[in-house]
Design goal:
The chain is mainly alpha-helical. The chain is about 65% helix and about 5% strand. The strands form 2 sheets. It has a two-stranded antiparallel sheet.
C-alpha cells in the first residue's frame, strides 16, 4: 500500500481528478446535450481549424489534467523505472497545454462577426499554418531534448543531462515568446474588428445619450460589442490600476492610470 508521504501530490491528485471529471462532463453537455459541435460551421471567412471558444477551453482543461493525473499517479506510486520516462511524464502535460493553447485565440477570431470590416482576418491560410505549427512544435522541438536529458541522466552523465536540460528550457522560452507575439498580433486584429463593428452599429442604428460624464447607449448590440471589447482587453491588462473606457463618440480607447 502506498504511504501518504507527500501531501502536496495527493492534493494535486484530488484536484486534477475533479478537473478531469468536470471537463469531460462539460464537454459532453455542450456537444451532446446542447447539440453544439466542437468546430464552427465552415465558411469562406474561416479556416480548417475553427474550434468554438468554450469547447476549446474545456478540451485543454480536460486533456491537460488527464495527462497530469497520469504523471502524478506514476510519481506517487514510483512507477517510472527510468529517468527518461519521468522526463517524458513531466513534459507531456506542458506539451498538451501548449499545443492546444492556440485554439483559444483562433476560436475568438472565428466566432467574432467581421462583416463590413476591411481590417478583418482574411488570410485563413496563415492562421491554419500557425495553428498547425504550434500544435506540433512542442513535440518536434522540445520533446527530443527532454528525452535526451533523461537518457543521459540514466547513464549518470549529469553534465550532458544538464546541458540538454538547459537547451530544453531555452526551447520552451523561444516557443513562449513566439506564442506571445502571435497572440499580440491576433489581439490587435481582433480589437480592430470589434472597433469596426461598434462604429458600424453607431453609424447605422445606435442611439447615444450623454448624461453628465456617462455615455448611455440604447442599442443592445452596441452594448454587447462594448462588453466584448472590455472582456478582451481585461485579459491583456497586467494590473488593476488601469481601466479601459470605451468612448462611443469616436470609438477610441481611453486608458486611465
Amino acid at each position: 500500500m502506498v504511504k501518504l508521504e507527500n501531501w502536496a501530490s495527493w492534493v494535486t491528485l484530488t484536484l486534477t481528478s475533479l478537473n478531469v471529471i468536470l471537463g469531460a462532463a462539460l464537454l459532453y453537455y455542450l456537444i451532446k446535450v446542447k447539440k453544439q459541435p466542437f468546430f464552427l460551421s465552415a465558411t469562406r471567412e474561416r479556416g480548417i481549424i475553427r474550434p468554438r471558444p468554450v469547447h476549446s477551453f474545456q478540451l485543454i482543461a480536460l486533456l491537460y489534467n488527464a495527462v497530469l493525473l497520469f504523471n502524478v499517479i506514476c510519481l506517487i506510486t514510483e512507477s517510472y523505472p527510468y529517468v527518461i520516462f519521468a522526463e517524458l511524464g513531466h513534459f507531456l502535460p506542458l506539451a498538451v497545454c501548449v499545443s492546444l493553447a492556440i485554439f483559444c485565440p483562433i476560436s475568438l477570431i472565428y466566432s467574432t462577426p467581421n462583416i463590413g470590416c476591411s481590417n478583418a482576418f482574411t488570410n485563413t491560410t496563415f492562421i491554419d499554418v500557425m495553428a498547425f505549427f504550434f500544435m506540433i512544435n512542442p513535440y518536434l522541438l522540445i520533446l527530443p531534448t527532454a528525452l535526451l536529458s533523461g537518457y543521459y541522466a540514466d547513464r549518470d552523465d549529469i553534465e550532458t543531462a544538464m546541458l540538454y536540460f538547459k537547451i530544453n528550457f531555452i526551447s520552451w522560452t523561444i516557443v513562449s515568446i513566439a506564442y506571445f507575439l502571435l497572440v499580440v498580433y491576433f489581439y490587435h486584429k481582433l480589437i480592430s474588428v470589434i472597433n469596426c463593428q461598434i462604429k458600424n452599429q453607431v453609424e447605422s442604428q445606435g442611439s447615444i445619450q450623454k448624461i453628465g460624464s456617462n455615455i448611455i447607449c440604447s442599442n443592445s448590440d452596441i452594448n454587447t460589442w462594448k462588453r466584448a471589447k472590455r472582456n478582451v482587453l481585461a485579459a491583456f491588462l497586467p494590473t488593476r490600476s488601469r481601466y479601459a473606457i470605451l468612448n462611443l463618440e469616436n470609438v477610441k480607447l481611453i486608458e486611465l492610470k
